[in-house]
Specification:
This protein is mostly helical and about 110 residues long. The chain is about 95% helix and about 0% strand.
């Protein structure tokens, strides 16, 4: 092998190595790259997600407060109902006593 053939063989080997390296870089870059537009879209989606999470947290807090308020109102209404039922029971008992008193008075007369 003379000097020209050796130089040509080295040039071909280097060209093939360069082509393989470039192809490998292109392939990796193709699968792993995030374009500038894609990055802006990802930032926008991340911001939207963050806002949605904050809104969800506020809604959960509002619902918990509203639930506590409604449970308090239910407890108060239940207490008022018990008091009204007790008052009605007492009024019925008193009315029954009055009827029997009136019947006794009519029976004596």
């Amino acid at each position: 092998m003379n000097r020209t053939e050796f130089t040509l063989a080295i040039a071909v080997i280097l060209l093939v190595a360069f082509a393989l390296g470039w192809f490998t870089y292109w392939l990796l870059h193709r699968f792993t790259r995030v374009a500038g537009g894609d990055m802006a879209e990802m930032d926008r989606l991340a911001q939207s997600l963050h806002e949605a999470e904050e809104t969800r947290d506020q809604a959960i807090l509002y619902l918990e407060e509203r639930e506590a308020e409604l449970l308090n109102q239910i407890a108060q209404t239940d207490a008022e109902l018990r008091a009204a039922m007790e008052g009605l029971r007492d009024a019925r008992h008193e009315a029954e006593e009055m009827r029997s008193y009136i019947e006794r008075m009519h029976a004596k007369a």
